[in-house]
Specification:
single chain; mainly alpha; 5 helices; 68% helix; disordered N terminus
Length: 107
């Protein structure tokens, strides 16, 4: 980012400071988008392994949790769509069975 901004400092040039903040925000959003796409692809691969067991969510959810360390909300939506049920049914299953970790809020 320094290459784009050049030698100007935020304290001396308010516009450049705004540009720097905008670029940092865009960079963070780009990283979040890439992470969502990666999650989507990895969940898709897990679902593909269970295509012969379409009505069984538990092994899929356990694999997802093993891969990510928790079950992301977006993964729940993908599993629900794959099973043709509502996400609340998947969340219900997860809350009924102990051991599932839900996504924690970002700081």
């Amino acid at each position: 980012m320094e290459a784009i901004i050049g030698r100007w400092s935020c304290e001396e040039h308010g516009l450049e400071c705004e540009l720097r903040r905008h670029l940092e925000t865009a960079s963070r959003e780009h990283e979040r988008t890439r992470a969502r796409e990666s999650l989507k692809e990895e969940v898709r691969e897990i679902l593909e392994r269970y295509r012969h067991m379409k009505g069984r969510a538990m092994p899929v959810l356990l694999d997802i949790q093993e891969r990510f360390g928790y079950v992301p909300e977006e993964a729940v939506r993908h599993v629900a769509k794959w099973m043709r049920v509502s996400p609340s049914e998947i969340f219900g299953l997860m809350t009924f069975h102990e051991g599932f970790q839900f996504e924690t809020e970002e700081p």
